[in-house]
Amino acid sequence: EDVERMQEELGVLFQEGEPLDFLKVRDNLLLAGIEKNEIESLLKKVGLEGKDLDKYPAELSGGMKRRVALLMALGKKKALYVLDEPLSGLDEETRRDIMEITGELLKSRTALVITHDKDYREFLREKLKARVEDVEHILIPFTGDRRNIRFNSVKAMKGFLEEIGKIPLVFLPLRSPLPYLMDFFLLTLPFILAFGVLVSFSYVYLLSRVRLFYLESRLPSIFSLVCVRGLAPLLTAIIASSRITSNFTSTIAGMSLKKQLFLLRTMGKPPERFLLSPAFLSLLFAVPFLTWSMFFTMGKAGGFFAGRFLSWCTTLYFSHQYFTTPGASDIIKMLVKGSVYGGIMAFVSYYTGKKAKRSVSEIGKLTSFSLLLALFFIFLFDFILNVVLY
Q1: What does the DSSP 8-state code read for residue 151?
Q2: pTM score
């Protein structure tokens, strides 16, 4: 309850704070709790236009991004606002604009503004009658168990603020998993189909070389069991992980570098529930469907190859044997494997990506490490599930 109350009462603008990259300006403001009918009027106060609402942050200039970040922090009525170096990194003209905007938005409000800019300090003193002084000790009396905590540095205060919103992971996503589902499934499906065709051609050809004990008539059934019990789920996981794990890890790493995960916490949107949970739920469904698509494609492509190029088999015979050999339990176990592998991708991607702290170069390193780590766990769990299920 104390954490939720702090989230409601505290608005924060970070030194390098920017809107969330993957949301349009309108969605960023709505996420910050600003009422829909207030957005247009607030937008004018910071010198932006209605057409900017449908733009992504990447389409905005640095000054425009700072204006949006200001609205996200100050647009909703809060008990206390914390602004950390709001003029940092801005050119002279934009600095003057932001000074005026903060002066307007902070009227009749309680705020802690951290700045080394002498002009800005004097501006706040004159326009808002602000008390300007060097602060060495800060007392935060929000909660019973923390009201006697004393901070001796800004770093310690930052550590305290990072605790805001750290709610235990609960799989009740704050966003719909549908966008992730569309991305992970639809954009990965073409690769699954293409690899399924190529691999089935190779394996059917290799099986056609088998001449022991006149097993040719049983080869479609053998190929089917190999696919449903091992090859289809494992190959799907490898291909899907190559795309999904890399993509999700780099996204989370970029957000971590820009302090956007911290920003979500201060808005009462724990990243575990806002980012990880919807991705996790979508992968629980997407990867099994991709696995089934792989199994189906390998059967159809294998039948086509066998009928056209193998003298001992027809397409109809191969397909009939392939699709009737596995029982319902085999199909269910294959889909269960897919769900497990999808969950591995989500967790490995998120918790690896959030380790990015210092440099953009970390994104590439963490992305490749995340992929290798996900594949390691996928192969490990593939062995464990084979032992348990079969």
Answers
A1: E
A2: 0.77
Condensed to tens digits (0 to 9), the pLDDT of residues 170-208 reads 456 667 888 888 889 999 999 999 999 999 999 888 877
Q: What's the CATH code of the domain at 116? A: 3.40.50.300
> Do residues 86 and 111 touch, judged by C-beta distance below 8 A?
no
Length of the chain: 390
Question: What's the whole-number average pLDDT of the chain?
Answer: 82
The encoded tokens of residue 373 equal 């780590």
Same domain, 105 and 240: no
Question: Cα separation of 92 and 360, whole Å?
Answer: 27
pLDDT at 132 over 60: yes
Closest among 50, 291, 326 to 192, alpha carbons compared: 291
Q: What 3-state class would DSSP assign to 335?
A: helix
Number of domains into which the chain is organized: 2
Paired tokens of 375: 């594949």
Q: Residue 375 belongs to what domain range?
A: 178-389
Q: Given 99, 133, 167, which residue is the final one in a domain? A: 133
Per-residue pLDDT of 230-266, as tens digits, reads 999 999 999 999 999 999 999 999 999 888 888 888 7
Q: Which helix (H) or strand (E) holds 246?
A: helix 232-257
Summarised one tens digit per residue, pLDDT across range 348-360 is 999 999 998 888 8
CA distances from 310 to 211, 273, 313, 343 (A): 13, 52, 6, 40
In this prediction, residue 145 carries a pLDDT of 45
What residue type is assigned to position 155 of the chain? K
Of all helices (H) and strands (E), which one includes residue 138? strand 138-139
Contact 272, 353 (CB under 8 A): no
